[in-house]
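Priority: medium. Attachment 1 of 2:
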């Protein structure tokens, strides 16, 4: 069996990525440069100097190089898995379609929110608590700040189900938390504007993660322990051999491995076509805004936040960590063809600007920066982390649905453990593959 990638998926994203905004409704906003995916990145961390084209010529006819584990994708999940695999025996290879911290997938954009009281379900809480410990450990090992304990403010019209779920998960796991009425919330968090019928929930254990730093730290530490990273190496297919090993092919090389982790983000379905994964890719645009009124308190020390609206929508944001307050919403655009992503929609920007006017009036409503990013959503917005039903040495990973980053540290640990033992921890049981065949 194996996989077949469509030419479109292989073709890269070049055509769909303008560097300057062309929609007059968005004004003269400059998009963050999303560079041509085939330019100016390292080809291999181990040597840094070799050129993949020269290698491709030389590699034709070579015997496949053998590894114990191959990880496909060096986003949050793949980088963490490689790091955790490097703590044990065996040779690991990571194959990445683009380059480190590229802006075409799901793990870029400078900040991510880590909430501990989990509105999506109490089952996530033990995972997030372990994840936070591992992020802090990564920070110590890497010698840089990966997690900043800003706390997280959740706000919503009173009676909101999301706040009630967050509260019940906090109670169940005895997490520190506070429920605040609008007056107290206003006093504590002056940057925001609360309405009379709002309620606020304070999660002091939450904070902000720095995704690019985390991925770089994982790669650096894993590489120091012998993991090889090959950039610009999209996997085009894999096939099992009769002895149980797997042949993994890029356009220029073949590799052999005893186990394979498919953590390819939005591209995952193209690697396991036969599984017909019920995943939908959604493009989200996030924006950075500068302060125009500093009398409302510091935007550097404000907490991360998620603000739920009355109709089930939400906006979220992270404090100014050097380039303004970052804000996004949940009005993304469906992406059917990864090679032709739509330009950012003015509807998304208008929704964020309305939110600013209502709730963060001290920020300028003209964004200074914007970035597109992909959600890979399952139907119930949970994750998929499971062995391939036909191949017990292949793990299929889709831990996104727009809230997966915070878990990457613990997912990597559990996936690496699963790869070594042939069994996934029971805590992952609710993320099994849907029965679609
Ligand atoms: C705007 C936005 C805001 C978010 N906010 C939060 C938040 O606040 N908190 C939170 O916890 N989560 C958040 N998330 C979700 C989180 O970022 C994702 O869950 C996480 O980054 C997913 O990581 P990944 O490794 O699965 O995917 P990716 O980061 O996309 O990594 C997959 C990698 O696989 C590579 N690849 C694909 N195909 C191949 C192939 N054939 N061969 C080799 N390599 C391949 C890709 O190039 C990519 O690098 C947010 C997501 C977005 C988009």
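Attachment 2 of 2:
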């Amino acid at each position: 069996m194996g996989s077949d990638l469509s030419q479109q998926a292989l073709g890269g994203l070049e055509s769909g990525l303008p560097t300057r905004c062309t929609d007059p409704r968005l004004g003269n906003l400059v998009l963050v440069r999303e560079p041509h995916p085939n330019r100016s990145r390292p080809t291999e961390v181990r040597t840094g100097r070799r050129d993949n084209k020269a290698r491709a010529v030389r590699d034709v006819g070579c015997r496949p190089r053998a590894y114990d584990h191959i990880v496909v994708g060096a986003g949050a999940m793949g980088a963490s898995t490689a790091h955790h695999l490097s703590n044990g025996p065996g040779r690991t290879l990571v194959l990445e379609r683009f380059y480190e911290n590229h802006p075409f997938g799901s793990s870029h954009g400078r900040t991510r929110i880590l909430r501990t009281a989990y509105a999506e379900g109490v089952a996530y809480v033990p995972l997030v608590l372990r994840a936070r410990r591992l992020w802090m450990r990564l920070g110590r090992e890497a010698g840089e700040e990966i997690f900043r304990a800003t706390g997280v403010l959740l706000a919503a019209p009173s009676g909101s189900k999301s706040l009630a779920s967050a509260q019940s998960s906090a109670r169940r796991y005895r997490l520190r938390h506070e429920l605040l009425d609008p007056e107290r919330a206003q006093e504590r968090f002056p940057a925001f504007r609360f309405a009379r019928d709002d309620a606020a929930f304070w999660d002091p254990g939450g904070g902000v993660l720095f995704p690019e730093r985390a991925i770089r730290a994982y790669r650096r530490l894993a590489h120091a322990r012998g993991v090889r990273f090959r950039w610009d190496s999209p996997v085009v297919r894999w096939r099992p051999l009769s002895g149980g090993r797997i042949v993994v092919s890029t356009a220029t090389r073949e590799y052999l491995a005893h186990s394979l982790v498919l953590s390819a983000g939005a591209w995952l379905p193209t690697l396991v076509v036969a599984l017909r994964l019920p995943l939908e890719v959604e493009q989200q645009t996030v924006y950075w805004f500068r302060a125009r009124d500093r009398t409302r308190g510091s935007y550097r020390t404000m907490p991360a936040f998620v603000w739920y609206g009355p109709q089930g929508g939400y906006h979220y944001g992270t404090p100014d960590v050097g380039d303004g307050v970052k804000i996004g919403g949940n009005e993304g655009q469906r992406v059917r063809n990864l090679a032709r992503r739509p330009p950012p929609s003015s509807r998304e920007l208008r929704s964020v600007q309305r939110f600013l006017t209502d709730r963060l009036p001290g920020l300028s409503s003209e964004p200074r920066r914007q970035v597109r990013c992909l959600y890979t959503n399952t139907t119930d917005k949970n994750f998929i982390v499971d062995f391939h039903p036909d191949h017990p040495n292949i793990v299929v990973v889709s831990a996104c649905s727009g809230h997966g980053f915070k878990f990457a540290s613990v997912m990597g640990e559990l996936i690496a453990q699963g790869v070594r033992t042939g069994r996934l921890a029971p805590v992952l049981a609710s993320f099994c593959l849907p029965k679609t065949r």
